[in-house]
Amino acid sequence: MKAFLILLMLYPFAEIAALVTLAGHIGGGGVMLYILLSALLGIFMLRNQKIGALMTLGSLMNNGPEISLYSLLWPLRYTLAGVLFIVPGVISEIAAILLLLPLKGPKIAMAARPAPVQADDIIEGEYHRVDEPADPNRRLH
After folding, report:
1. Residue 109, pLDDT score
2. Up-side HSE of residue 96: CA atoms within 13 Å toward CB?
3. At 107, which helix (H) or strand (E)?
4. Going by C-beta distance under 8 Å and a sequence separation of 6 or more, which residues neighbour residue 43?
């Protein structure tokens, strides 16, 4: 747990060091443009995250009773990648790209669907109709 906390505290410094190194290679304007474009990409992904849910539903329909765990978690991965694209930095961009890779995971067997009820089933029984006697004084003329 301590190692995770130390890595979490060192993450911003690693991002800054990566951005400074990148700025040394392509210049400050290029890095600012890179950060702006990646943030716009992240915003676009978050605004259109319904696509991830639709892709998961399409996968369920195409693959039948078995589906990959990674494709089931696709909407969550897509949303997290969008957030990581908004965070400025090279390391977060690499993590977002890794989340968007189409990985195959273990298969999950879905429960079998119940058989549809046939409409021509016949239920036999007896009934009789009980009507209240009509009052002859109560008419609508």
Report:
1. 62
2. 22
3. strand 107-109
4. 82, 86
Hey, how many other C-beta atoms are within 10 angstroms of the C-beta on 46? Answer: 15
The DSSP code sequence of 11-73 is HHHHHHHHHHHHHHHH-HHHHHHHHHHHHHHHHHHHHTTHHHHHHHHHHHHHHTTEEEHHHHT
Residue 68 parent element (H or E): strand 66-68
DSSP conformation class of 115: P
Closest CA to 100 of 119, 77, 84: 77
Q: What is the pLDDT of residues 7-26, one digit of tens each?
A: 989 999 999 999 999 999 99
Which among 111, 13, 5 is positioned nearest to 64, based on CA atoms?
111
Instruction: Indicate if the alpha-carbon torsion angle 28, 34, 40, 43 is positive or negative.
Output: negative
CA atoms within 13 Å, Cβ hemisphere of 91: 14
CA distance 48 to 132: 61
